[in-house]
Amino acid sequence: MLLQLYLARYFDVRLIKEKKRGRLKGTLYSSHNQEAILVGSLFGLKSTDWISPIHRDMPAFFLKDARKGWRNPDRIGMTIQEVCAQVWGKAGSPGRARDNWSHIGSKKNRIIHSTSMLAGTIPAAAGVVLADRLNGGDALCVTYNGEGSTAQGVFHEAINFASVHKLPVITIIENNEWAYGTPNELGYSLDDFARRADGYGIPGLIADGQNVLDVYDKVMQCVEHARAGNGPSIVECKSFRAYGHGDHDDDRAAKYRPTEEVEAGRSRDPIAIMKRIMVERGALSPEDATKFMAENKGAAETDNSDFPPEVVAYLTEGVEFAVASPVPPAEEGGMWVFAE
Amino acid sequence: MATIQESPNSASAPSPAPVRGKINYLTALKEAIDEEMGLNPDLLCMGEDIGLLGGAFGVTDGMAAKYGTHRVYDMPISEAAIVGVACGACLNGKSVMVEMQFIDFISCGFDQIVNMTATYHYRTAGEVSIPMVIRGPAGGYGGGALYHSQMNEAWFAHSPGLKVVCPSTPSDAKGLLKSALRDKNPVLFYEIKELYRRKDIEEFVPVGENSLVPLGKARIAQEGTDLTIVTYGQNVYHCLEAAKILQNEGFSAEVIDIRSLVPLDEETILTSLAKTNRLLCVNEAPMTCGFAGEILARMAEKAFHLLDAPPGRITRLDTPVPWVKPLELFVLPSVAKIAEAALRTVRF
User: Fold this and answer.
1) Of A80, A142, B5, B340, which has the fewest CB atoms closer than 10 Å, so is most exposed?
2) Is the pLDDT of residue B6 over 80?
3) In chain A, what residues touch B83 (CB-CB under 8 Å)?
4) Total number of domains in chain B
5) Domain that residue B330 falls in
């Protein structure tokens, strides 16, 4: 888990550095400080389960089924090469760079293809597991959503439907306090988004989104609930968006958000919290805990020595593949409108 | 709690009756769904009130009992979720027929149709195709007022990745729906509710494979030599009536029912124009950015040299569809309006 947290963080850091170096263009949507939500929720899933990540969940594409080993060819998840090729807009992307950033998916790897429409894939998640059940499977689907997504009508429509048919859809609400430039108090009149579950008669759990073990524990409760045939649930993971909505927004975010709030939010770094717990439980020696100090730092303040070498090596393979991969031929822009 | 009794021989293919009478448009639709449900065990139906009730108009009457509630779903009043759930089921190997209770309500599911479903094949570079049909009762002339009279097909013809179909006869209703249910792409299927039970259009309709009508092939509803009238849906009948008026004036009109907007059979229209050299397009949707305008534009590009008169169009006024009769007929295309425009065109 700790290694996966490092990998998710390094993905973020590395892309920012690649962009600064001029090797990468486009907007980056950081998952910095929210990595525990992804790692903790993915860790206990079966290979055959589906996931539906959105823009702030980029590491989920290559962390899916990563417990088997990142490089394990039997893993049902995307490779780092595929994900990096997508970020770079290259032909090696699973979607051949037709839509940007996180707007990829994979039927084979059981990842629902995301769009820009928030909460827009929750109905599809319900449909996917409904079809799976009809086919005799027991797959569940974990969908990732910001708390901002909960204001969408389709969020309600889809979870309502899933609750009627007891479909195994676990809705993660990554409550990072900010929906782009709007703080939660301007968007919602309730403090705990988990309470949305009450409206559907389903469980709504609250997890400390900075504590990967707590996220794991709460999600696994929902997984067991779903596997027992009891249907959907919601897990609200309390977190904080460390930087801007996207990197284009970093400078403005530093102005529209109070400094004290940002500092407090960033202070609970999920890597540091995991290390502390491991040291307390004797799973990590205090010396080893200080070996790779990626926590509590912005991208510019880190270098490769702050991350375990296997993390740096794995990501470097992805980046080099992406850089070397060709841009798709222009005429592909006119292809695949209709299936033949 | 209400339950649906499943019939003992559920999920067996329908047995064709050896001798049959003429059937109406609604029965034709029902037969198409029944036959395809029997043939394709992966085909599901989802919509509001389609199971227990059998649909607001009865198009899915008996389907839940015959094929089971695991294949025919009574959905909550959530058009976006209906389309989205169907999309997810298609992503995972199913085909889904979605019923919109009235096509007017489709706007509630708009995003799921145009952004999620229509683009799926494109944005996955062909990895995923979504074999979904979204069908529902459409059209005016029945006093249905603003929210039960719409023809909003242009929204979807304007959204790449969707096929758009609109049958005007029982044979086409059945044959096109069967083809749509076998298509790998999402298809918007506009049923004309005023034709559902219309007596004078009942006809003999084949059973099984013989009833298939391909998408993208227009039908010449009436042959003629002096003017080509291009239309679809209920307006086909208004145009045929107008053609009779022209006949009395000594002109012969060819009436083309395009049957599908996307794909559009331009060839049939061009062939007709080469013969008649005059064009009038008719649709009951509003004028601005309506499909009649699209046909005019394409023909102006491709067949300008063939035209002996300015091409014209008759559409609804750019208004909603009002409720009470005189108001409704004032805004919609009528036989008189079509005949007048047609005569202007042939006399130019």
Assistant:
1) B5
2) no
3) 123
4) 2
5) 219-346
